[in-house]
Amino acid sequence: GGAADEERRRRREEEERAAWGGYKTEGAAAPGHGYRTEDIAPLAYRPEDIPVAVVAYNRAEYLQRSLASLLAVRGIRKEQVAVFQDGFDASVARVVRDSGLHLSQHPRS
Q1: Using CA atoms, how far apart are residues 70 and 47, in angstroms rounded to an integer?
Q2: What sign for the dihedral angle of Cα 38, 14, 9, 32?
């Protein structure tokens, strides 16, 4: 009946909590590695306060997608994003320039 089902559900939840060290998260890898979102302190910073460094080496097509995704984040400003290139690849430099970002190149010796 209803009371028996409720008791089984309550016991199952207690067993799961015990197995997860008191925490349970959907999709966590193993007991002891879970957390509850209500236990996480709210962030005390805003996206616009965080500097972002992107390191690039070749692969301009991946860089283009990554930068587009990064710049689509609400609150991210181009001034806070710096791209560093190891070596020189003209296509990477073009992607950075076309994105309106600053590029620092480090020539390979």
Answers
A1: 11
A2: positive
